[in-house]
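dude i think i finally got it to work??
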Amino acid sequence: MREQYLELIKNLVSSIKGYNYYPEGHPAREKPIYRVHEFLTKYLNDSPSLRIAIVEDTLVVEDIPLFDAQPGVMDLYNSMDQRKIGEILFFKGVTVDELKTLLHILAMPVEEFKSVDVDEYFLQKGVKFIEIIDKERDLKKKSKRVYTHAKKFIVEAMNEIRLGRVPRIEVAESIVASFDRILKRDESAIMALVMLSDYDNYTFNHSVNVGILTLALARELRWSDAEEVGIAGLLHDIGKTKTPIEIINKPGKLTPEEWEIMKKHPIDGAKIVQQMDKFKTDVSLMVLQHHVRYDRSGYPDIKNSKMIEGTHLITISDTYDSMTTLRPYQRRYDPKEALDIMVNKLRGKALHPRYLDTFVDMLGIYPVGSCVRLKSGEIAIVTGLNRSDPLHPSVKIILGKDGKYLPKPVEIDLTDKSERKKREIITLVNPTLLNIDVTRYL
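look at this
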């Protein structure tokens, strides 16, 4: 494959140079990019991705190093190195337009590139099948950036709808694709963000959280349409743009008249998704049905209509996030407490029993954000799961044996036997009783 990889690099570099030297549509600018696209299309028929990376000062395609003397290699190496790009990843489905977006980024002067948020740029352009990873490879930082962009999309989408415009479904698709790639690499990096909501931004955070949880659950179930279900989760409350803000933010119980207005938001949401993309029928139906319970109660009344399976995943995720999120008129439940209520009171009634069991397994015995007491007497926050050993997650110790805050939290992995011997988890504790703000430590 070395020769084919060298040809790929040569055409990619020619495309970058052509982008700066020739106007759009010029053959010298267009032909190389189409050759790159042709190669990637054939290659990605048999492989899930193709990786171009800088590894130990050498340009590597997949696992094959390409050396400086070969045509184009040093040019691409320098372009990536100057921009602190560690990897460029291509995934099956990459389009010519996405490659042109990549070229625009790589052809920028270095100083201009440094001022661009590549993740946000790709999201706004609807790029789903190319990813740029910086050299630092800090997945938690990347997760926070993508989360922030997702929340910004929900804010902007709701504003556009209120102004009578239709948001771009491509941006939602790109966001969910980014979340999916992060989840595949380290689910804890993104799942911790679900606990960071604050009531001032509840509507926006909640939409993003439900999108993440739904996507993660669909992946756990190995569904082929996981990303589509994730998009429905992200957009499930989009219809609330048609609901009067005073009803949405009312701190007390709604009147019967107000409740009837609130119950219209799934119908409004489904209509909006249909406007965003008429082909996403299942997405619009999941948005329509997300308040229909497993036992067919709830709203709207779908009578004998088919229940879309992904709807059950959104309902589970929606319930969990609503219970574990701080709101002005509702206390936040501890993650374990919320799961216990869902299993003991809602399983088989409001929530699909088998999918709920998978959801509980996915979040673990001690979900991220749980507050626990250790054998040592210290208090810690669960910060990461160990799927192979759910009784021993990663934790961040915040209170010492004396009950006082540590000068700096101590992170440990309880799968380490030496740590576990001293610091086995004894019990869950209620962070509210100890005046602990869990979100500070995630």
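The two ends are 43 Å apart (CA to CA).
im so relieved honestly
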